[in-house]
Amino acid sequence: MICVQAVMYDFDTIIPRRGTGNIKYDRRPDLDPFWVADMDFLTAPEITQAIIKRAEHGVFGYAQAHQGLIDVTRDYLAKRHQVEVDADAIVWLGGLVPALSLAVKAFCRPGEAVMTCTPSYPPFLNVHHDGASIELISIPHGKINGQWTFDFAAMEAAVTPQTRLFLLSNPQNPLGRVFTRTELIELAGFCERHDLVMISDEIHCDIIFNETATPHVCGHALPANFHDRIITLLSPSKTYNIAGIGIAYAVITNDSLKRRFVAARGHTQSEINTFGYYACEAAYRSGEPWRQEMLAYLAENQAVMHQFLAAHAPRLNVNHNQATYLTWIDCRAYDWENPAQHFEKEARIFVSDGAFFGSKGHIRFNFACPRAVMLAGLQKLVSVLPQ
After folding, report:
1. How far apart, in whole angstroms, are the C-alpha atoms of residue 223 and residue 201?
2. Which residue blocks in 178-273 are alpha helix, DSSP H?
3. Beta-carbon neighbour count of residue 80 at 10 Å?
4. Burial of 329 (C-beta count, 10 Å sphere; 0-12/13-18/19+)
5. Which residues of 122-132 are buried (b: 16+ CB within 10 A; e: fewer)?
6. Whole-number Å distance between alpha carbons of 69 and 300
7. What is the per-residue pLDDT across 53-79, written as a single tens digit (0 to 9) for each?
8. Are 344 and 31 in contact (CB under 8 A)?
9. In which residue ranges of the chain is CATH 3.90.1150.10 found?
């Protein structure tokens, strides 16, 4: 007998968001938005209830990570990532983009360099400006047997004695790739040979469509000899659609690395708000059923999107994601100087411009929305394609 799991959560209802002060809808209210990494789904109800319960207390003084949050986060790291750490290895943060900037300030001096691979999340290509006279070395990802991966030969040719950091996105944004343990060990070995600190941004690690076929390998789940040069960055924000609350953390097991990273904060980082701490605890303690249904819904959205574009826009080269809800579309078959601007002007949809990720001629399309909304956006997109 086949057992069908009952659906508990609603991802099809359209939640009006314009006029609520969110950047996705209110930055360009004249356009239908499929750009920033923000889902149109209600978060897990347990998270909402945790925030309401904390709000009912009525006193909102300076906050710190409470014991329940620390315990559930350590349990999450151990059970989901096979990473056992003490509480003092966790550095709480208000977001992961500030953490990238902190890393540049902590480990780079004028004349030194940061390396990353493109296409990449735009802050990866810009945080070097947060340090004085820091260089960026960007190497395009390569493809082997149709699979995006690292071009280690190009990386070896480009790295310099002044390079200090490697910025890794895993799962990769915008390529949706989940790197294998073998690839990550080779990358960690590259960092070891060249004495680089590896910053592993894993904010999308809980949005993987087939966790058996493509399991996430956490930076601190790599062999222990690499841990002294790895900073792993994590957050429930993308998975549970709570980015506006502002909660993230770094795992740093090397004391010297941690001291330098924390010292770089100075007085420039704001306090983490109390709701962030309680939202994170609720996500890790009670959010798994919601996460599983969200993943199933996104996987179906991706399948429907691929079928639709294959039928109506075969000249678009649409990436197949192993992870994330942000698909990468190669538009270079069309003679457009800027595909994102073309779709904005002609279709009135807002998609991310590939140039900001280091790859002109591409767009990034967010499919984390009710299926009807996604299909309406795709219909607008294909309606302005040349015949």
Report:
1. 18
2. 181-193, 237-240, 255-263
3. 16
4. buried
5. bbbbebbebbe
6. 33
7. 999 999 999 999 999 999 999 999 999
8. yes
9. 23-43+288-383
272-302 as b/e: b if 16+ CB within 10 A:
bbbbbbbbbbbbbbbbeebbebbbebbeebb
| Per-residue model confidence as pLDDT tens digits over 73-120 | 999 999 999 999 999 999 999 999 999 999 999 999 999 999 999 999
E strand or H helix at 117, and its extent? strand 113-118
* Whole-structure pTM value: 0.96
Report the candidate in 273, 264, 207, 286 with the shortest Cα–Cα distance to residue 246. Answer: 273
| Percentage of the chain lying above the pLDDT 90 cut | 95
To the nearest 5 percent, what fractions of the chain are helix, strand and coil? Answer: 40, 15, 40
Please give the DSSP secondary-structure letter assigned to residue 357. G
* Nearest-angstrom CA–CA distance, 35 and 341: 12
Amino acid in the structure at residue 68: G
Measure the CA–CA gap between 371 and 365, rounded to whole angstroms. 14
What is the CATH topology of the domain spanning 49-286?
Aspartate Aminotransferase; domain 2 (3.40.640)
Reported confidence tier of residue 269, pLDDT bands at 50, 70, 90:
confident
pLDDT at 175: 98
Radius of gyration for the alpha carbons in the chain, expressed in angstroms and rounded? 21
pLDDT of residue 362: 98
**Domain 23-43+288-383 class?**
alpha beta
CATH 3.40.640.10 in the chain is located at 49-286
Torsion of CA 278, 281, 284, 289, to 10 degrees: -50
Whether 165 and 202 have beta carbons less than 8 Å apart is answered as no
Read off the amino acid at residue 219. Answer: G
At 284-320, the pLDDT tens digits run 999 999 999 999 999 999 999 999 999 999 999 999 9
Q: Cα separation of 178 and 172, whole Å? A: 7
Burial group, residue 338, by CB count within 10 angstroms (0-12, 13-18, 19+): middle
CA distance 189 to 222: 11
